[in-house]
Amino acid sequence: MIAIFRRFQGKLISSLFLSLGVFLLVQVIAPLISFEVWAIGQNINSQVLVSPVKSSEQVLGISVQNRNNFSAFISSLKRETQPNYDRFSLSVPKLKIDEMDVLVDMNYLSNSLVHLPGSALPGEKGNVFISGHSALNQFSVFKNVPFSKLSELKKGDQIIVETSGSKFIYEVFDFKVVDPTDLSVIKAPEAQGRYISLMTCVPPGLNLKRLVVLGKMI
Question: pLDDT per residue over 12-22, tens digit each?
Fold first, then answer.
């Protein structure tokens, strides 16, 4: 009886580990497949610009540097007049992001969102360029990854920025999936407009491409 019980116990433990392994594998693969389906659908509908190759366009004062196997945008641009704040808040109602801090003129991603040095400040003409971490949605509770579900945004969704008593509302109008070294996404679509860009890594949990959501102030 003891031998039979031990065999049964061994099979039960093996089954539990197998089930756990399958569960974890599904949790990893499902978001990747979901993103690929989303990207294909957006491309077919001509709603996203997919740029699989490095852009030849350069942005003065900004370079791409490898930091711990991560291609980061590094800006050496300096402002003539410094803002009287070192952070502003970002809200994206669709993603349940509520007044999250964005660190101003910060090159390196931290546990918060960061605003690219030299890019437009909230409300200014140009492009307010914000980057944030992404990860597999299932593991988001363990990390500060506010942009994990960025691909769930749709045209017309609102992006709200508040600073120094002022509130600016942007409306999503376009999406881009680009190579990590593509600096062209930093520039505003046109000189006189007021834009915002939210960038993160895709597919979720990987560092292969960048998803950029573009909004225009309304």
Answer: 666 666 665 55
The hierarchical CATH code for the domain 49-217 is 2.40.260.10
Distance CA 211, CA 193 (A): 21
Cα 105 to Cα 86: distance, rounded to the nearest angstrom: 8
Per-residue DSSP letter, 121: P
- List pLDDT tens digits, range 126-181: 999 999 988 755 444 445 678 888 989 999 999 999 998 899 999 999 999 999 99
Q: Is the dihedral of CA 9, 14, 15, 17 positive or negative?
A: positive
Reading the block at residue 92, the tokens are 């994206």
Residue 44 sits at φ, ψ, to 5 deg, of -60, -40
Instruction: Give the predicted TM-score (pTM) of the model.
Output: 0.78
Query: Which segments of the chain does DSSP mark as H helices, in order?
Result: 2-44
For the chain, the structural domain boundaries read 49-217
- Give the amino acid at 74: I
Structure tokens at 138: 């299932």
As a whole number of angstroms, the distance between CA 180 and CA 137 comes to 21
185-212 burial, b at 16+ Cβ within 10 Å, e below that, comes to bbbbeeeeebbbbbbbbbbbbeeebbbb
* φ and ψ at residue 72, rounded to 5 degrees: -115, 145
Task: Give the model confidence (pLDDT) of 165-178 as tens digits.
Answer: 899 999 999 999 99
Tell me, rounded to whole angstroms, the distance of Cα 105 from its chain centroid.
17
CB 194 within 8 A of CB 174: no
